Structures are given as C-alpha cells and as structure tokens.
Amino acid sequence: MYNFNEKPDRISEKCRKWDKKIIEENFGEVPQDFIPMWIADMDFKVPKEIEESFCEVVSRGVFGYTYCYDEFYKAVIDWQYSMHQAKVEKEWITLSYGTVSTIHYIIQSFCKSGDYVIMNTPVYDPFDAAASRQGVNRIYNTLAIKDGRYYIDFENLKNQLMEFKPKLYLFCSPHNPSGRVWSIEELAKVSRICKENGTILVVDEVHAEHIHYENFTSILNIKDYKDNIILLTSPNKAFNLGGLKTSYSIIANEKIRNIFRDKLKQNSITSPNVFGIIGLITAYNEGRIWIKEVSSYVKGNYELLEGYIKNNIPKLKIMKMEASYLAWVDIRDTKMSSEDITNYLSSKAGVLVESGTHFVKDGEGYIRINLGTQRENVLEALKRIDKALNIK
Question: Which of the residues 47, 52, 72, 170 has an alpha carbon 20 to 30 A from that of 281?
Fold first, then answer.
C-alpha cells in the first residue's frame, strides 16, 4: 500500500539529517552526493492518514491552546493494549515534550546533586547528558558480549546497586544502539533487582514498534514490579514524528507519578502541541498497517546490509538488529578506531554513520548505521563503503 522507495524532499524540509551545513558542523567537509545514515530519523513519508489529519487542522486556520482530551488517552490505552498487550489506566498517562527532555525532568524529580543513576553501556547518549547536566553521578554497567549479542552483567549490576544506591536505572528497551530485544526473564530480573535496592526503573521504549526478530515484552507486563517503574515512549521513532516534540510517560505508582508531575508543573509542561496530539492520535488509531509495512521494509534493508557485508566486506561484523532501524556494526577487524572510520567514510565515500564513541562508553570499535531510508540509498552506501575500505 505504501511506497517506501519514494524519496521525499528532505532538503527543503531543513531536517538536521540532510542539512549540509549541520552535517559539516559534525563531520567536516563532505561530497555533494552524501548519504546520511547517522541521526535516528527515517526518510519515509508519514502515513497518509497523518498527513490528512494535519491538513484538516491547517484548514481551520486557528492554532490556539489545546489540552489532553479523551481521544488522546484512549489512543494511548488502545495502542499499548493492541500492540504490547499492556493494560494501562488513564490516570497513569502524563503528556511531555519529547523523551529526552522528560529524562531531564525525571532526574530533576528524583535526584539531587551528588546522587547516582545507573545505565548499561554503550547506550543512547542523552541518558548520560541528562544526568551530567543535573550534577548527578553516573554508574556504567557494561554490557557483556556473547556470540555477537549483548547481555546484562547481572552480578555486577547487583553489586553496583548495593554499593552506590542509585536513585534511577535508565534502561533502553529495545536497546539503542544495538537493537537488542530483552527477554521477559531479563526484564523481570532487572525489575526485581531495582525494587530490592530502592532504585526506580526508568524504561525508554521508543524503539518498541519496529521488531524484526525475537519477541518484545513491554516493561508494563512485568506486573509484580509495576509500582517501581516509569515507562517513557512516544510515536516519534515509530512514525518519524520527532519534530513534533510530543511524548508521554506511564507511571502506575501514584506517589512517583505525583512527584514527577509536580516537576513538570514547575517547568510549565502543561498543554500539548496542536499538531503533536493530533499526530499521536492519528498514528495510534490509523497507523497499524503503515507500521507493519515500514517494519518489513526496514527488515529488508537489514537483510541487504547483512548479506552484502558477509559476502563483500568480511572485516565488518553486524550485531543482529532485532529491533529498530539502527544497525550496530563491529569494525574492530579494520584496525581503525570508530572516529577514524567515521571520518574516513564521510570524507572519502560521502557515507555518514555514527561513531560508537558517541554512545557514552564501551562503543569504541563500532559504528551505527541508520537503515530507515530508501533501499537504493542502502545499496549505494554499501558499495561506497566497500570501495572505500577496499576489503573483500
């Protein structure tokens, strides 16, 4: 039904991913025919239903203050149940202006300067930045690698929680940058250890809608520990609506929820963006077919990447992309550092990828490649990488 090979005009859009000025601030000079595969932003048009709902809003010609009306809550509740079999109550849901800013508010809510938070590494860099900006200490639980797959070092985790008593555990599920899907047993174990040690488990599930392998379990389904969990999510990665800055949290524990909401009030996080709330409602109510089709397309891109690298660039190794549209690639056999290979590919091949060193800690020796683009771009990028590295 949807044509994901179609290339929308992303230059006129002035998106960061394709803007040459922004790119050269990050990568230095690049060829004119660059292929951006770095920031987590997809190159596909949103579902036509979302586009039509925005046109309807525009046709009214008025964009006044709005509020979280019943359709918003119902869309979230129905989506979480139909997609993740999670039962959510209306009062658990709180609007916010993007997951990253929400992490800042959560840290402000539950930590003071000198407290600790913990996270697995490598991990999405804004986790670390949010804590650092609040003067909060960070503890890193390095993920173990076994047979090319990440695993949580639970023994070390237990010791770290007992020693440092972190206020929060910032947890990415599915994992970014690798796309690892955590099992229900792993999630239950993480939840139990946090509860036993008085650490609130904060789970980012923004990449939960693109699942390619394994079975995804929402943290909301770990019912024994739901009173110690803050879930953060949005349709922004799923439907590429990041520019609308609209997200939400789900918190079952009333005390935790009220502390968090008080902090939002202090920062005047009250009413939603007019287009953000319409986009969320439409995406959740009418976007299921699109999600299914775009996930299938992205999985096809991953299979192209996997096969091409295996057959043509054997010094690169891919960690199985179980979820998301972001491939985590081991470049250690090239004998180049992550920064060196990133700079080399951008300048010599015009292929822009993300250095593993941008993911807080333990990312050296890896790069992240964004596959949320047209297949033509993926194939051309692979050919350029192959030629630039000259390894067969």
Answer: 170
- Nearest in space to 275 (alpha carbons), one of 309, 237, 307, 235: 235
Residue 392's pLDDT is what?
Answer: 41
The H or E element that residue 127 is part of is: helix 125-133
Q: Is the peptide bond before 235 cis (omega within 30 degrees of 0)?
A: no
| Residues 97 and 235 sit within 8 Å (Cβ to Cβ) | no
Q: Are 354 and 362 in contact (CB under 8 A)?
A: no
Cα–Cα dist 176/120, whole Å: 10
Q: Other CB atoms closer than 10 Å to residue 211's CB: what's the count?
A: 18
Please give the Cα distance from 355 to 209 (Å, whole number). 25
Domains plus CATH for the chain?
20-46+289-389 (3.90.1150.10), 52-286 (3.40.640.10)
The helix, strand and coil proportions of the chain, stated in percent and rounded to the nearest 5, come to 45, 15, 35
CA nearest 199: which of 179, 176, 228, 173? Answer: 228
Q: What is the pLDDT of residues 225-283, one digit of tens each?
A: 999 999 999 999 999 999 999 999 999 999 999 999 999 999 999 899 999 999 999 99
Query: In this predicted structure, what is the pLDDT of residue 391?
Result: 53
Q: Which of 152, 163, 158 is nearest to 195 (CA)?
A: 158
Residues 6+ apart with CB under 8 A from 193: 154, 157, 158, 161, 199
- Which residues make Cβ contacts (< 8 Å) with residue 85, sequence separation at least 6? 218, 221
Q: Taking Cα atoms as reference points, which of 123, 142, 126 lies closest to residue 134?
A: 126
